[in-house]
Amino acid sequence: MRAFTALLLRDIVLSLRSGGGAWLGAGFFVLIIALAPLGLGPEPALLKSAAPGLIWIAALLATLLGLERVIEPDLQDGTLDLLRMSALPLEFVVLAKVLAHWLTNGLVICVLAPLVSPMLFVDAKALWVVAASLLLGTPGLSFIGTAGAAVSAGVRRGGVLLALIVLPLNIPALIFGAGAINAVQHGSDPRQALLLLAAFSLIAAVVASLAAAAALRLNED
Amino acid sequence: MVFRGLSFDVDAGNALVLVGPNGSGKTTLLRILAGLLTATIGRLQFFSDDRAQVSDDTRDQSAHFVAHSDTVKSSLTVKETLRFHADILGADRTRVQSAMETWDIARLGDLPGALLSAGQRRRVALARLSLQDRPIWLLDEPLIALDRSVRARLHDVCADHRAAGGLIVAASHEPFLEDAATLELGAHA
Amino acid sequence: MLHYANPQNFLNLARRLTPWFFGAGIAMIAVGTYLGLVIAPPDYQQGDAFRIIYVHVPAAWMSLFVYGSMAVASASAFIFKHPLGDVAAKAAAPAGAVFTALALATGMLWGKPMWGTWWVWDGRLTSELILLFIYIAYIALWDAIDEPTRAARMARILCLVGAINVPIIHFSVEWWQTLHQGVTVFRTDGPQMPASMLTPLLIMALGYTVFFVGLLFVRMRTEILARRLRTLRLNIEGAFA
């Protein structure tokens, strides 16, 4: 437990300090939302109907940022050896890293999204679904992303590969997340979509932490 | 990497220095000993004092491994790095201060890794040895980037460790622990 | 069976069987093509345009079958630590990607006369597209890691995560379809097809499968030999180091 907390706190500190890029994801997210009207035109009806997809595509892309820093630096500077030799099971190492990534990336997006969504003319009564869908879905994105980061760690120019691996696997989150916001905008019940989103995150948590731990265990030869 | 006909044993209080040309597998062998790599064929046995065989997990917990890489983050201070190492090792945090003193980096405690020289970063990595008493030390090229006084320090620390019944396996290009047995690796590869 | 888990024995077996698989596969595809394009009656709604089904549907089946085989191969490599599973999965991937691309291309060709456009966001077409992305990611991962053993291990993990995710993606796409009241899709309801239409389809599907196995053998042999060559090179360089 002590090792887990130490790792979690260290990863958070690392991403908050210079060169850590904790706010990059959130900044990127806001930027995409702000760019959309410039590309699509300021028509409120159009932006409103495009909003669910835009918000979730922005979230998908924004969570990619920072993933390269989740595993790679520890692999390069030898800290991963230390973690592999420690008493902390690698599944928990992964969990600490996912949590640190989510707290500095996904959670910030969850907080910012309801604030910037009105720029896309999302109704005030739909904002809670925006927040809820991101709150339920972004942990899944961090889990799958960390598994992708573990599998592609040590690869030259791993960033593009990481996106190529992670984005298709995160498609269910995009569909259910945008679906939930869509549902509430059309006056129907978003709960089914939100539950499916939660299910996706839970499955992602199990599969991705096992996969990432296996990848860290087998990462060298 | 293939080792053929490789066999050795090291007893408590002794040391073994692996020598050989680049690519002869010194690092690979150390990583196998550290449990970070698995040998496809062959046996690796660790015995405790009463000659009982030690399990892999226990072995991980009873060895220090200081590799080429320094495990230093540019945005963490020396003290933060060593505290983190202590937490991961399960060591007593109060030993961080004395470890820094042993390796003569106490005055660097609040400097971030980015400002350290190569030799200072090496000392932070080596200071891990002093954070917790572990019987087995696995050192990969420990002399690199160290000046003469730190080399002497390393020698003293290693001598103390062996006197206390610890054992050392090290890979080195330069003469290191001259009283220790050596294992020439190139011949086996 | 265990006998052929040895790479050398497998190489010998694969070398002997390859021509037979290729021969049988090509023969079945030829027969299926003839039956499908010439003998089978035209569809009462679509006329002759439906005949693309004989390329499209087997390709779509193969796209899933190949990924399934890769997952089985990866899982066996994971459990039994046997390199042949990795070799098989790696060798199968480009073939699977080509089948997927073929299914997409023929689906688009079919879409033009049926729906009036090259592309609609039909559930199955969308799932195929995502599957193609997953194939590409798998191939790219192999390509990106220089060291074959490490590449094999990472690719194994990715393949299995993908295998768990593919049904979830498929489900989410189906769900997405019902949400957006998608286009009415032409359905190939198997049992309702007359035998004269169905038989060529089955023959084609079998032909594709057998041809794929032949291709797999060739690619696996190439991969095993390439690895040996690599080992030999390393040893020679080591000897002069």
Task: Report what the structure shows.
The complex is a heterotrimer of chains A (221), B (189) and C (241). Chain A is mostly helical and 221 residues long. Chain A has helices at 2-16, 24-40, 44-64, 72-76, 79-85, 90-116, 127-151, 158-169, 171-185, 191-217. Chain A contains ten helices and no strands. In chain A, helix 2 packs across helix 6 (90-116). The two termini of chain A are 29 Å apart. The mean pLDDT of chain A is 93. Chain B folds into two domains: 1-62 and 135-189, Rossmann fold; 70-133. Chain B is 32% helix and 12% strand. In chain C, helix 1 packs antiparallel against helix 6 and helix 3 (83-115) packs antiparallel against helix 4 (123-144). The chains are: A mainly alpha (221), B alpha/beta (189), C mainly alpha (241). Chain A binds chain C through residues 144, 147, 151-152, 154-158, 161, 164-165, 167-169, 171-172, 175-176, 179, 182-183, 196, 200, 203, 207-208, 211, 214-215, 218-221, and chain C through 130, 133-134, 136-137, 140-141, 144-145, 147, 149-150, 153-154, 157-158, 160-162, 164-165, 168-169, 171-173, 175-176, 179.
Comma- or semicolon-separated keywords:
heterotrimer, A: 221 residues, mainly alpha, 10 helices, C: 241 residues, 0% strand
Quick synopsis:
The complex is a heterotrimer of chains A (221), B (189) and C (241). Chain A has 221 residues and is mainly α. In chain A, 77% of the residues lie in helices and 0% in strands.
- How many separate domains of chain A? 1
The count of domains of chain C is: 1
* Helicity range of chain A: over 70%
* Strand proportion of chain A: under 5%
Shape of chain C: globular
Topology:
The complex is a heterotrimer of chains A (221), B (189) and C (241).
Chain A: H1 2-16, H2 24-40, H3 44-64, H4 72-76, H5 79-85, H6 90-116, H7 127-151, H8 158-169, H9 171-185, H10 191-217
Helix pairs in contact in A: 1-6, 2-3, 2-6, 3-6, 3-7, 3-9, 6-7, 6-10, 7-8, 7-9, 7-10, 9-10
Chain B: E1 15-19, H1 26-33, H2 56-61, E2 63-66, H3 78-89, H4 95-102, H5 118-127, E3 136-140, H6 148-163, E4 167-171, E5 181-184
Parallel strand pairs in B: 1-4, 1-5, 2-3, 3-4
Helix pairs in contact in B: 3-4
Chain C: H1 7-39, H2 53-80, H3 83-115, H4 123-144, H5 148-179, H6 195-240
